[in-house]
């Protein structure tokens, strides 16, 4: 089983405004509701690709109940911890203008609820996969992901880590199977501006993260595709398929889901990377997440 963990699941309110005028009345041309949060995004795309998974994390209030019910309606299993106070987030994403996001803060996570989540993680088996994605709540320590990995009962459990900053660095010593920084996050980590065309520079930075414990490093390059540095020191690069970009929110999470689906289905890094890039691109070509058939169509063309 694949488990995805999202600290702050959300309802994402996608608003299409052709010409946003600050300080004036604006009319929405179109609105779309999505369930969001990085791990939740991975869960949805995995399900589109026919892979069962369970979503973990925290939900609160009526918005949390809606997120849980909505995911279950999609066929995604959930095992969320229900917080005693607050509400899960509603985030606003502006589409149709320069891409703009307004994200709300998450609810407070009390010690009892955190213990309940850690108990759920302690039940994950050696053949399972755990996807840790996103950022911690404001009241959480930056080593929370590292703590979760350290408490897994089996060393063989594969961990996919998609976070940044201290949360990423603190967890590397536990040898996650895959980490997925994007090129901006990689630049921030090394205080160096990387260009998508600088394959050698990106690969060398990835190797430094491997020296700290990461097994495989997948660097997403946006419209330029991705570079994967494997634990046997292969550098594999994939360009993104051509298409009209509509909304890039969640495309990195789609890449993680596609990579996992490809790895499980085909058992090699080349196909995993190809399906990952195609999944990320397919979602970028949609207002929401791509359907499974749209992803697979791009994949068949790219192979």
Number of helices: 10
Question: Whole-Å distance between the termini?
Answer: 27 Å
Biggest sheet details: 10 strands, mixed
| Number of strand elements | 14
The CATH superfamily appears as: Ribokinase
Query: Into how many domains do the coordinates divide?
Result: 1
- The percent range for helix content is 25-40%
Gross morphology: globular
CATH class: Alpha Beta
Which structural class best describes the helix and strand composition?
alpha/beta
Using the coordinates shown, work out and report the CATH topology: UDP-N-acetylmuramoyl-L-alanine:D-glutamate ligase
The CATH level-2 architecture is identified as: 3-Layer(aba) Sandwich
Mean pLDDT: 93
Strand content: 15-25%
Low-confidence stretches: none
SSE order in H/E notation? EEEHEHEEEEHEHEHEHHEEEHHH
Rg on CA atoms, Å: 18 Å
Account of the protein in words:
The protein is α/β, with parallel strands linked by helices. It has helices at residues 38-48, 61-73, 111-121, 144-150, 165-171, 183-190, 199-211, 251-266, 269-284, 292-302; strands at residues 2-6, 10-16, 30-36, 53-59, 77-78, 81-82, 89-95, 100-102, 129-133, 158-162, 178-179, 216-220, 226-229, 235-238. The chain has a single domain, classed as UDP-N-acetylmuramoyl-L-alanine:D-glutamate ligase (3-Layer(aba) Sandwich), CATH 3.40.1190. Helix 4 runs parallel beside helix 5 and helix 9 (269-284) crosses helix 10.
């Amino acid at each position: 089983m694949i488990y995805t963990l999202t600290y702050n699941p959300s309802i994402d309110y996608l608003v299409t405004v052709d010409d946003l005028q600050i300080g004036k009345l604006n009319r929405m041309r179109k609105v779309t509701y999505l369930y969001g949060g990085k791990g939740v995004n991975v869960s949805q795309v995995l399900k589109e690709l026919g892979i069962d998974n369970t979503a973990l994390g925290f939900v609160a209030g009526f918005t949390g109940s809606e997120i849980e019910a909505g995911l279950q309606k999609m066929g995604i299993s959930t095992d969320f911890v229900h917080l005693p106070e607050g509400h899960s987030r509603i985030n606003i994403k502006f589409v149709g203008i320069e891409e703009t996001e307004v994200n709300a803060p998450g609810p407070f996570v009390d010690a009892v609820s955190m213990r309940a989540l850690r108990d759920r993680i302690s039940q994950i088996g050696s053949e399972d996969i755990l996807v840790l994605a996103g950022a911690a709540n404001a009241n959480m320590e930056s080593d929370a992901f590292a703590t979760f990995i350290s408490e897994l009962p089996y060393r063989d459990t594969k961990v996919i880590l998609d976070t940044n900053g201290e949360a990423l660095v603190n967890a590397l010593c536990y040898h996650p199977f895959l980490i997925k920084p994007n090129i901006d996050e990689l630049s921030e980590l090394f205080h160096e501006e990387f260009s998508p065309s600088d394959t050698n520079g990106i690969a060398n930075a990835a190797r430094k993260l491997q020296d700290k414990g990461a097994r495989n490093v997948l660097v997403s390059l946006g419209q330029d595709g991705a570079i994967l540095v494997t634990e046997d020191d292969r550098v594999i690069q994939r360009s993104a398929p051509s298409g009209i970009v509509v909304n890039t929110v969640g495309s990195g999470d789609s890449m993680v889901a596609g990579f996992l689906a490809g790895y499980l289905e085909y058992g090699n890094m080349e196909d995993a990377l190809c399906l990952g890039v195609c999944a990320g691109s397919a979602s970028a070509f949609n207002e929401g997440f791509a359907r499974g058939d749209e992803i697979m169509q791009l994949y068949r063309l790219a192979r």
